[in-house]
Design goal:
Number of helices: 6
Strand content: under 5%
Structural class: mainly alpha
Distance between the termini: 20 Å
Number of strands: 0
Number of domains: 1
Helix content: 55-70%
Shape: globular
Order of helices and strands: HHHHHH
């Protein structure tokens, strides 16, 4: 339990620092914005209570907002992602359910399951983030393209990070 707590604290700090100091400065023509900090919510244990998941999502979003000066955009998007996570996990649940103590990682469930899981949640996060940023349906197709392009870039980084940290 202590090990899992320390891993998640280290992951939180590491992902926020990586996002704020490196990834926020990467923009390819304004369409490809990587948001790797969403990996923190994706890798939380299955058994986490929903209320605690929402609190952690809120803290993660506020932290990124403070450093990015985005006035609650990341907070709203991460809380939305945290809200959807139990429903996505229920839809993707194996026939026997999830074993206690396992984490939602590629090594535990395979690439196909992890792709479905991360695509659903990252796309929802990006959808909320970019439409709140535009705050309207002006440039609708441009916003949709930003959502898709940034989601693909973010999911690619998430998959890459999973293979880099993968241990048997």
């Amino acid at each position: 339990m202590i090990s899992l707590l320390s891993q998640n604290i280290f992951r939180f700090i590491g992902l926020v620092l990586l996002q704020v100091f490196i990834l926020n400065n990467i923009q390819f023509s304004g369409y490809f914005n990587p948001f790797l900090y969403t990996l923190f919510i994706l890798l939380l244990p299955f058994e986490i209570p929903t209320w605690f998941l929402l609190i952690l999502s809120f803290i993660l979003g506020v932290t990124v907002d403070v450093f990015s000066n985005t006035l609650g955009l990341h907070t709203a998007a991460t809380v939305f992602m945290g809200f959807l996570r139990p429903y996505v996990l229920k839809v993707l649940s194996p026939r026997d359910g999830y074993e206690p103590g396992t984490l939602p990682k590629i090594g535990n469930f395979g690439l196909s399951w992890f792709l479905k899981y991360s695509i659903a949640l990252v796309f929802a996060h990006h959808f909320m983030l970019f439409f709140l940023e535009v705050f309207g349906f002006d440039n609708f197709f441009s916003t949709i393209f930003r959502i898709i392009a940034s989601s693909i870039f973010t999911i690619s980084l998430i998959i890459l990070s999973q293979y880099i940290t993968y241990r048997k």
